[in-house]
């Protein structure tokens, strides 16, 4: 090797190191800008360490992406520190522990209020030890004291007041997991925000002073809520933190993490494009969707890829705003994506690949597009299967539970209160509600308040009462949140992100999907600072409107900066490289067992479900399938025994009737009878 070659290699290595250095610097700048852009809240509390109030405010602030500036009270220094924070434009609220109020002089409190007029202020952790005179002073006489309620012996609930602070939560009832509360004695025209109700009593626990932006929250000791994948656990979790969650939502507004819009979807499982499908006439269902303003997605089983009727397919092509298709398993056999012990990972991988290949053929035959969103049959898959969905560039998976069958439920507020999670292979997993059961209005109110997409599903038997069976649910959602946009699952996943406004007018984005549509609704150009959790170690690319775009990935964090002109929209996609050749995958229906199951399922949905007894059997089998299987096995065993007994008796009777008597005489002339077979007799 020549000295010139060595020099070139040395220069190249220095160039690589320099490029890596620039990348690290750029990453640090992006991460710093994301952190520095967060809005702040000022928390003034006692210096005696952690307490429940401080912890609850901190958890709620983190949920909204707000940074807490925790100032411990020190005589002579706190006022000057608070004054410095109050000058910061990123400050959106102040929280003061009730225990600190005696240490604040009248002069200091007036200075706090006047420095930022209108800045929301929460006095938190009020209990029966808080001096009534201080409550009267800070509330301008509208709150006179804090009292302890009698011990309740019957379950209670929180009732949320109607108003601009509570928005979609107005009138909601939330579970009260306590038998005793501290409550405010309102002596003036203070506005109750939350009240605890036991029997006929209404006890204010969060209130707003009249004509002031000062809020008062009573002390709420922490309670232990078990961590489970049950989506309805959301109500208990929200109720336990309702005061700081509602206050900070109001105080921070667009500076807090929030969804870009309100979205909803209704999915009809198992159907294929034939008219009718069980109780469902597609033209009639479309008419209901148009009249009541909802969108219907068919969870389509890929096994049916070439069975669509042309007239029904034409209906979907003509009305993509109301009708759409997503993927429902592959063959939809029982527990198709169940435990690996009975459904090996390799088989699940082949099914996921084949499902895509079949849906591409469906698209080719019908000219109807589909969303690569997977709804697993019967139950959600194990966690490792999520990585296969991601590798194949599925958009998301949507199921009644958003936790894989073999995974533990993640702790934390983000999982408990959001519809979607990236906790498993950084792949979007969303929860949905069965429209065939009663859904708590308060559950939907929390979703609307937090901007969660509301996803519903049902099967064809749901429409036994009439084609308008879903109308009441759709009407409730549209009344709860009039701006709700009913879209396809694919469209909803592409709007699955959180955004917050920065001090400089730019936008922070926390992507919850690998494919997002961003729109700059401001009247000025803006830069979007995008971050996404990304666990994949395999090769990937980022495109914007189909063209490669630079990004940085360090550890499990992917970031990029995207300028968007005023009023413009951009599509950002993360694509994962794989070696799949969809066109080469066998899509034939070669399994006799699978074919029999699918045809029997069609018979169930289109024939058996047409009677009341048939629908009862379908519901009972869905709920108690194992018991029915045992019963069927027992009946089959009894039937085999009876058949065997019948065959035995028939043969015995046949044998008895197959001989004929013959009169014979012996040598001495005595007569005797001899039974001979007919053939021998005729010989």
UniProtKB/TrEMBL annotation:
Organism: Edaphobacter paludis
Upper taxonomic lineage: Bacteria, Pseudomonadati, Acidobacteriota, Terriglobia, Terriglobales
Gene Ontology terms: biological process: carbohydrate metabolic process
Secretion signal, residue range per the UniProt entry: 1-38
Superkingdom, taxonomy of origin: Bacteria
Gene3D superfamilies: Glycoside hydrolase/deacetylase
Parts of the chain that traverse the membrane: 628-649
Name of the molecule in the record: NodB homology domain-containing protein
InterPro entries named in the record: Glyco_hydro/deAcase_b/a-brl (IPR011330)
Alphabetized UniProt keyword annotations: Membrane, Signal, Transmembrane, Transmembrane helix
């Amino acid at each position: 090797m020549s000295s010139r070659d060595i020099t070139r290699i040395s220069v190249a290595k220095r160039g690589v190191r320099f490029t890596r250095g620039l990348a690290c610097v750029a990453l640090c700048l992006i991460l710093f800008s994301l952190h520095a852009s967060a809005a702040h809240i000022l928390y003034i509390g006692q210096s005696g360490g952690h307490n429940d109030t401080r912890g609850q405010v901190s958890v709620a602030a983190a949920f909204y992406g707000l940074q807490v500036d925790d100032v411990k009270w020190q005589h002579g220094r706190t006022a000057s520190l608070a004054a410095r924070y109050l000058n910061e434009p990123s400050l959106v609220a102040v929280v003061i522990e009730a225990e600190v109020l005696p240490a604040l002089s009248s002069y200091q409190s007036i200075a706090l209020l006047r420095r930022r007029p209108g800045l929301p202020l929460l006095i938190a952790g009020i209990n029966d030890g808080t001096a009534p005179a201080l409550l009267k002073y800070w509330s301008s006489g509208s709150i006179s004291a804090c009292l302890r309620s009698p011990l309740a012996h019957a379950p209670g609930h929180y009732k949320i007041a109607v108003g601009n602070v509570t928005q979609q939560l107005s009138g909601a009832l939330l579970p009260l997991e306590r038998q005793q509360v501290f409550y405010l004695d309102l002596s003036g025209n203070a506005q109750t925000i939350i009240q605890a109700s036991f029997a006929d009593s209404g006890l204010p626990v969060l209130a707003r002073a009249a004509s002031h932006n000062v809020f008062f929250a009573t002390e709420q000791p922490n309670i232990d809520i078990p961590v489970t994948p049950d989506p309805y656990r959301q109500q208990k979790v929200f109720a336990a933190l309702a005061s700081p969650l509602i206050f900070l939502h109001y105080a921070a507004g667009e500076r807090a993490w929030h969804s870009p819009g309100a979205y909803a979807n209704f999915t009809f499982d198992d159907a294929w494009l034939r008219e009718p499908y069980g109780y469902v006439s597609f033209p009639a269902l479309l008419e209901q969707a148009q009249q009541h303003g909802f969108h219907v997605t068919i969870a389509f089983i890929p096994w049916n890829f070439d069975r669509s009727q042309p007239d029904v397919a034409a209906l979907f092509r003509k009305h993509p705003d109301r009708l759409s298709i997503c993927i429902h398993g592959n063959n939809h056999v029982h527990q198709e994506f169940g435990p690996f012990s009975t459904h090996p990972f390799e088989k699940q991988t082949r099914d996921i690949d084949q499902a895509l290949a079949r849906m591409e053929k469906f698209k080719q035959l019908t000219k109807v597009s589909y969303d690569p969103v997977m709804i697993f049959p019967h139950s959600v898959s194990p966690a490792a299967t999520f990585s296969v969905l991601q590798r194949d560039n599925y958009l998301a998976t949507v199921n009644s539970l958003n936790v894989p069958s073999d995974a533990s439920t993640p702790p934390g507020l983000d999982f408990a209160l959001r519809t979607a999670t990236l906790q498993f292979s950084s792949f979007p997993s969303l929860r949905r509600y069965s429209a065939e059961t009663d859904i708590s209005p308060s559950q939907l109110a929390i979703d609307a308040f937090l901007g969660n997409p509301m996803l519903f599903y049902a099967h064809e038997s749901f429409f036994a009462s009439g084609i308008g069976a879903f109308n009441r649910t759709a009407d409730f959602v549209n009344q709860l949140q009039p701006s709700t946009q009913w879209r396809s699952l694919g469209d909803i996943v592409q709007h699955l992100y959180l955004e917050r406004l920065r001090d400089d007018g730019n936008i922070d984005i926390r992507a919850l999907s690998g494919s997002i549509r961003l729109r700059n609704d401001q009247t000025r150009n803006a830069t979007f600072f995008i971050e996404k959790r990304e666990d994949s170690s395999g090769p990937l690319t980022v495109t914007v409107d189909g063209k490669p775009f630079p990004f940085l990935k360090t550890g499990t964090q992917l970031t990029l900066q995207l300028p968007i002109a005023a009023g413009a929209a951009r599509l950002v996609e993360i694509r994962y490289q794989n070696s799949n050749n969809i066109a080469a995958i066998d899509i034939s229906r070669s399994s006799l067992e699978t074919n029999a199951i699918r045809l029997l399922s069609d018979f169930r949905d289109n024939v058996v479900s047409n009677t009341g007894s048939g629908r009862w059997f379908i519901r009972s089998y869905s709920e108690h399938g194992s018991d029915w299987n045992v019963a069927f096995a027992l009946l089959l065993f009894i039937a085999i025994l009876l058949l065997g007994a019948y065959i035995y008796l028939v043969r015995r009777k046949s044998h008895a009737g197959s001989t004929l008597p013959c009169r014979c005489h012996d040598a001495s002339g005595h007569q005797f009878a001899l039974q001979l077979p007919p053939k021998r007799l005729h010989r």
